[in-house]
Amino acid sequence: QVQLVESGGGLVQAGGSLRLSCAASGRTFTTYGMGWFRQAPGKEREFVAAITWTGRRTYYADSVKGRFTISRDNAKNTVYLQMNSLKPEDTAIYYCAAERTGVSGTDPKSYDYWGQGTQVTVSS
Questions:
Q1: 3-state helix, strand and coil shares in percent for the chain, rounded to the nearest 5
Q2: Which residues are CB-contacts of 30 (< 8 A; sequence separation ≥ 6)?
Q3: Which of 82, 79, 110, 90 minimizes the C-alpha distance to 4?
Q4: Residue 77, Cα to own-chain centre: how many angstroms?
Q5: SS3 64
Q6: Contact at 8 Å (CB) between 52 and 74?
Q7: Which of 23, 42, 43, 50 is the most exposed place for a label (fewest CB within 10 A)?
């Protein structure tokens, strides 16, 4: 069992930066693939970024590539999402997710555990 708690969301102007954190509990965190997803009002949940359990491979949605960076610190049981050059269209609730195979992926259905989400609002 893994429990996930996101933090770091808030209100920021366009062009600004935020860093989201996802703290995980559970001994097996280090073997889990981790992902970030987001959901805007009236839209489906969409993939943002993912990282394998080793941290050696990362994946990004085209819409955030070059602006967002996912990373993890297995010693701290934490995964991060550094978001730079934020745009109003990045406004959404951001969710952290964990999946047991360690591979990670872009399909939310492949993830086993989810956090409660943190709101990110980017003003123009």
A1: 5, 50, 45
A2: 53, 74, 77
A3: 79
A4: 14
A5: coil
A6: no
A7: 42
Contact 92, 44 (CB under 8 A): no
Provide the token pair at 84: 């730079």
Judging by DSSP bridges, how do beta strands 92-99 and 78-83 pair with one another? unpaired
Counting residues of the chain whose pLDDT is more than 90, the rounded percentage is: 85
For residue 98, the one-letter residue type is A
User: Residue 58, SS3?
Assistant: strand
pLDDT by 10-residue block (mean), the chain, 124 residues: 94 98 85 95 96 94 98 94 98 96 88 96 96
d(CA 44, CA 47): 10
| CA nearest to 81, candidates 90, 95, 71, 91 | 71
Instruction: Tell me the CA distances in angstroms from 15 to 37, 53, 89, one per residue in order.
Output: 20, 31, 12
Torsion from C-alpha of 19, 24, 27, 31, nearest 10 degrees: -60
Helices (H) and strands (E) in the chain, counts: 0, 11
